[in-house]
Specification:
Elements: H1 6-40, H2 49-85, H3 100-105, H4 113-121
């Protein structure tokens, strides 16, 4: 039992839907940008060192953004699975109820705040 009403769950599902659509659009844009950039850039040996460095930095940032968005999409899918199996709104570590206010802000939350802090303290940034 999640402790959330059907109306609250429906509202949270809509938030997940909106965020999923935003992320999908961002990933499509990132992929299109990468394809366009690779088709118009001359081979690396043709550019000067500054051009090459800028291109590598831009590519690294773009790849980081894509990885971040893909991770969030995975968390949204996980939240939907928890909704289906009746575990949504419960911390995956300690099984306590995640406050509704936290879910309203971050509907894909899988942990209560104390467990999330512990999780983040024991893992490098960007890892699950």
């Amino acid at each position: 039992m999640t402790g959330l009403s059907e109306k609250q769950l429906a509202s949270l599902r809509k938030k997940l839907d909106r965020r999923e659509a935003e992320l999908a659009a961002e990933l499509a844009s990132i992929n299109n940008e990468a394809m366009e950039e690779s088709s118009r850039l001359p081979p690396m040996e043709a550019g000067d060192a500054v051009d090459q460095a800028e291109a590598r930095i831009h590519e690294t940032v773009r790849d980081g953004e894509a990885q971040r968005d893909a991770l969030e999409l995975r968390r949204i899918a996980d939240a939907r699975e928890r909704m289906r199996n009746g575990r949504y709104g419960r911390c995956i570590d300690c099984n306590t109820q995640i406050p509704r206010e936290r879910l309203e802000v971050q509907p894909s939350s899988e942990r209560c705040v104390p467990c999330q802090r512990l999780h983040e303290a024991h893992r490098p940034p960007g890892h699950t």
